[in-house]
Design brief:
about 525 residues, mainly alpha, three-stranded antiparallel beta sheet, 16 helices
């Protein structure tokens, strides 16, 4: 009995200990989750502190017209002309205009600053949208209507891409770490997702209650007022060409794409002198080249746009087959809302998960989550699959935009962001045109199959591409980046900009010691001695 009781007591004590341990582990996990959530909120507060509370609101309202006009023009022309073919022609012309002129808008913003460029294009876009509405209501022929659609697309001020370039410039200029930069890109992508959900929804409401022309009229008003507000906001000077030379990455960065930390040390710079020596400045007259590795990133974004376009065509075809055409917009909205939520949570991803790993994970998730669409036959199944698929969209966009930001020269950041957005729009427009016909002939599964195939190509690019991080040429760098005492000789040393110096406190923080292949350490001559030949 005693033995049994001892055994029982020991078992009870063990159970109690295990229970306490379980509670301790649970409390630790809860505390870690709460700490991560608090850290994420602090990061977003830093982003808003850099931009001010008004800029995200103005930029969101300024990008709503872009999301409204594409869908609104289709409904407007279809109602006024009675022809879906004419509506498709105008919508295609609008997309072509935006794809063709988007990079030009970004290049002009890099060269002349965002303020003038955005102001001019915002007013021009408002007039072009108003002309398109007037032409549709006047029953113009398809040719002139398509021309007006192309003008409306070509004059888009690209508030979204330029807002990305602006907040990145503000963050880099303030010395913020890459966690803050990634959070800024997450916030911008979330604003994009919400705008592309809300814009078509507003068009649909206007079409049901009154006429699509009212939605497009509101878009023209927003383009003029909020586009101008974005242009005239005090932060517009953050991307002025005169400030490019003092951009932290223009003077010293590490040379790997997988890390996420800028150099930790810098010395005093001389803006006037450095501006004259920086590639791409007006004084030098030369523009730094976009590295070839960026082409893979642009291809990935074009494929994501194509995947979204194929899914859009498949969703439309399936809801029509089920006799629930009115549900197509709500299905898109469910996908967009989930994508926006996933985008906001990207700021909580640990820094040890590098950008290339995130890129691969996002493309793999998009491929795997798109496969169930091939066997979806009912409305509720479509809602479930498409909503879950939205988890992969924003993380992929955010990651590829972050890789693009690191790969391009700071003096061409707006152009690179505009080109990336044009790649998405172009891929989507082309996929809608092709897969729409496939869906009509072979059913929605044909469009979904194209979407999965495109996702597989995007995943292959992510697995094989090797994006780089832009480093300014040595002739454009300050002669001294940081000076410290050598560990073996006692002599002062200069760490060249190509040495990888991670910011303090990061998980992978380390400074390469002398002799390591990535660190190039140059000894400075002692005072009073001749320098080595």
């Amino acid at each position: 009995m005693v033995g049994k009781e001892g055994t029982i007591h020991r078992a009870t004590d063990s159970l109690g200990t295990d229970g306490a341990s379980h509670r301790a582990v649970s409390a630790l996990g809860t505390g870690d989750t709460r700490h991560r959530a608090d850290s994420t909120l602090r990061t977003y507060r830093r982003v808003v502190g850099l931009t001010g509370a008004a800029l995200p609101v103005v930029s969101f309202l300024g990008r709503l017209p872009t999301a409204t006009v594409q869908f609104g023009s289709l409904l407007l022309v279809a109602r006024t002309s009675g022809s879906l073919g004419t509506a498709g022609l105008v919508g295609g012309a609008l997309a072509v205009g935006q794809v063709a002129c988007g990079p030009l808008v970004g290049r002009l913003a890099d060269r002349h600053g965002q303020r003038t460029v955005v102001l001019v294009f915002s007013l021009a876009n408002a007039l072009a949208i108003a002309a398109l509405v007037s032409g549709a209501l006047s029953h113009l022929a398809p040719g002139p209507l398509a021309l007006l659609g192309a003008l409306a697309g070509a004059s888009v001020p690209l508030v979204g891409p330029l807002a990305r370039a602006r907040v990145v410039a503000l963050a880099r200029g303030s010395g913020a770490d890459d966690r803050t930069v990634n959070a800024a890109l997450s916030l911008e992508s979330t604003l994009d997702e919400i705008s592309f959900v809300l814009g078509p929804a507003l068009v649909g409401v206007a079409a049901v209650l009154a006429h699509p022309a009212y939605a497009l009229g509101g878009a023209a008003l927003l383009a003029a007022v909020c586009g101008s507000g974005f242009a005239l906001h005090p932060t517009a000077t953050a991307t002025h060409p005169r400030g490019a030379a003092t951009h932290p990455r223009a003077t010293a960065t590490h040379a790997t794409a997988t890390g996420t930390h800028p150099t930790a040390t810098a010395t005093t710079t001389h803006p006037a002198r450095d501006h004259a020596r920086t590639p791409g400045s007006r004084a030098s007259g030369a523009r730094p080249r976009i590295p070839r590795s960026v082409h893979a990133l642009r291809a990935a974004l074009a494929l994501q746009g194509a995947m979204f376009g194929a899914c859009q065509a498949g969703i439309t075809a399936l809801t029509e087959r089920l006799g629930r055409e009115d549900q197509a917009g709500l299905v898109y909205a469910a996908m967009g809302v989930m994508s926006a939520v996933a985008g906001l949570t990207m700021a909580a991803v640990p820094a040890r998960l590098g950008l290339r790993l995130r890129w691969r994970a996002a493309t793999a998730a998009a491929l795997l989550l798109s496969l169930p669409l091939l066997w979806t036959e009912n409305l509720w199944g479509l809602y479930a699959v498409v909503t879950v698929l939205g988890v992969a969209y924003a993380p992929h966009l955010i990651t590829v935009f972050a890789l693009t930001e690191r790969a391009v020269p700071p003096t061409r950041l707006a152009e690179a962001m505009a080109f990336a957005t044009s790649a998405i729009v172009g891929g989507q427009a082309l996929a809608v045109a092709v897969t729409g016909r496939l869906a009509e002939s072979y059913g929605p599964n044909a469009a979904f199959a194209v979407g999965s195939s495109v996702a597989a190509l995007a995943c292959a690019i992510a697995l094989t591409a090797r994006p780089t991080t832009y480093t300014a040429p040595e002739k454009a760098l300050p002669t001294r980046v940081d000076e410290e005492i050598g560990p073996h000789t006692g002599e002062p040393q200069t760490i060249e900009p190509h040495a990888r110096v991670h910011s303090e406190g990061e998980p992978h923080a380390r400074v390469h010691s002398e002799g390591e292949p990535h660190a190039r350490v140059r000894h400075l001559p002692r005072q009073g001695t001749n320098p080595p030949p």
